[in-house]
Q: What sequence folds into this?
C-alpha cells in the first residue's frame, strides 16, 4: 500500500529536549516536505526536498532542521524545542516531474511544555 | 510574495444543496498547479481536485468541480449535492515551478441535515 508514515503520532516533551519526527514514503517520490498546521493559519511549509541531499527552506524554517540522506526518508529535527513549536505536523511526498498532488502522512501532534 | 487567500473562514450548506468555496492567489508565474484538499475531523489530508494552470478546461471529480479564472487568479471549488461526509476543513494550495507550496488558511464547511 502506498503511504507516507510519520512517527510518533503524538509526543509531549519539554523545552530544550532534542527530538526527531521521522517520515518515510514507499512510493519512490523525489519530493518530500514538512508542514506545520496551526489554528487559523492553515498549513505552512517548513522545509522541502526535491531529491536526495537537496533541501530548501519553506516559509517557517526557524528552529527546525531536516536531512535527506535517502530517497524514502525525510526526518524533521527540533534541536532545542520551544513552546511555540507546539503544533500539528505533516509530512508529504510527491513526484517532482509533473508536480502532482502530495500524499500526506497522518500527522504528528507535538506538545512542547 | 506569492499568497493564497481563502476569504471564508466558515460556511454552512444544507444537505443536498450546492456550495462554492472561494480561493484567490497572487503570483507572477504562468506555470503552476492548484489543488483543493479536504481535512475531515480525522485530520487526514485528502486530495479533492487538481488543476494545471495551462489547461483552460475546469477540472471535475464527480460532485466536485472548480471554476478556474487564470486572469483573475481565482480558483473556487463547487460541491454539488452536499453530503454529511463533506463536512471538513478545505484548503486551497498553490504549487509553482520551484515547488515551494503555499496553502490558504482554510474554510470550515458545515453540512446541515
A:
Amino acid at each position: 500500500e502506498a503511504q507516507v508514515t510519520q512517527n510518533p503520532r503524538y509526543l509531549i516533551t519539554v523545552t530544550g529536549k532534542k527530538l526527531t519526527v521521522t517520515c518515510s514514503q514507499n512510493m519512490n517520490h523525489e519530493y518530500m516536505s514538512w508542514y506545520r498546521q496551526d489554528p487559523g493559519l492553515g498549513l505552512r511549509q517548513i522545509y522541502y526536498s526535491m531529491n536526495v541531499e537537496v533541501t530548501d527552506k519553506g516559509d517557517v524554517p526557524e528552529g527546525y532542521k531536516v536531512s535527506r540522506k535517502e530517497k524514502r526518508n525525510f526526518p524533521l529535527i527540533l534541536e532545542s524545542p520551544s513552546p511555540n513549536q507546539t503544533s500539528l505536523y505533516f509530512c508529504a511526498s510527491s513526484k517532482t516531474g509533473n508536480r502532482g498532488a502530495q500524499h500526506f502522512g497522518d500527522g504528528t501532534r507535538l506538545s512542547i511544555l | 510574495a506569492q499568497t493564497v487567500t481563502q476569504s471564508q473562514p466558515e460556511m454552512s450548506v444544507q444537505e443536498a444543496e450546492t456550495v462554492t468555496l472561494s480561493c484567490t492567489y497572487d503570483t507572477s508565474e504562468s506555470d503552476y498547479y492548484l489543488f483543493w484538499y479536504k481535512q475531515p475531523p480525522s485530520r487526514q489530508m485528502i486530495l479533492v481536485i487538481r488543476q494545471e494552470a495551462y489547461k483552460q478546461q475546469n477540472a471535475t471529480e464527480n460532485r466536485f468541480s472548480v471554476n478556474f479564472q487564470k486572469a483573475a487568479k481565482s480558483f473556487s471549488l463547487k460541491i454539488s449535492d452536499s453530503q454529511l461526509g463533506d463536512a471538513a476543513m478545505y484548503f486551497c494550495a498553490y504549487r509553482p515551478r520551484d515547488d515551494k507550496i503555499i496553502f490558504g488558511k482554510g474554510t470550515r464547511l458545515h453540512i446541515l441535515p
